[in-house]
From TrEMBL:
This is Oxidoreductase. Substrate binds at residue 109. The record marks 76 as: Lowers pKa of active site Tyr. Keywords: NADP, Oxidoreductase. The active site is at residue 51. It comes from Pseudoponticoccus marisrubri. Residues 18-261 form the NADP-dependent oxidoreductase domain. It catalyses: hydroxyacetone + NADP(+) = methylglyoxal + NADPH + H(+). It comes from the Bacteria. Belongs to the aldo/keto reductase family. One of its GO terms (molecular function) is oxidoreductase activity, acting on the CH-OH group of donors, NAD or NADP as acceptor. PROSITE patterns: ALDOKETO_REDUCTASE_2.
Amino acid sequence: MTAIPQLPLNDGRSIPQLGIGVWQIDDATTPGVVSTAVELGVRLIDGAFIYGNEASMGEGLRQAPAPRADLFVTSKVWNADQGHDAARAAIDGSLKRIGLDYLDLVLIHWPCPAQDRYVDTWRALIEARDAGKVRSIGVSNFNPDHLDRLIDETGVTPAVNQVEINPRFQNAEIRAANVARGIVSQAWTPLGNGKSFDAPAIRDAASRTGKSPAQVILRWHIQLGHSVIPRSTKRDHLASNIDVLDFELTEAEMAAIAKLDAGDRCGPDPREFEVV
């Protein structure tokens, strides 16, 4: 298998461009998914406190046939843990549950602007990074105004902004804002729940390349420069999701997929999401 490319981060580190997410995978299944993905060549594992499976993700990492130093493990501070002290405790809790001495990346899961605690939360992430508990720090679902407030008030730019991106919700404004600030865009729900699988632009590219619609979409992400974290519990799907490095979409195919954008979110709007 071709080695998965690394994307440079603005803190001097790097992140694998392709990994897996463990959202909505139950405790019993998660260890096998994680260890199988690593066996197949995946090194980026994306988790979060709110997923409820950090401990089983950690078990999968211990079962995985790769040393810890070769893995890139992400977790996230949930909305109920916003604020300086609560966020510090949340990071310690994630480390304990997963069973790690450090995390490669910690994100603020949502800005929750009505709480108005994300700057204090960000300060806690900076402290955790400086203490060696976290290698890189970033955010998830942050809009440009949220990003600029973090940067203006702390002087520290997030390394990653994990946001919803898929063919029917391409989130061009946020992607451009990330690029302008030197932030890597990481795509969650990158396949858009399959809503564009039957679109002619996807089907035509799949027919030409001999790949599946899902592989075409993941390749689209790769060529746009995103880090991408598809989810699957099946070995053949895990293998298929990383078998996207041996072909390229043409400029015409990329342009055709760009026209699929319909503003059709799969998840909530970050300006409004305040669930704790």
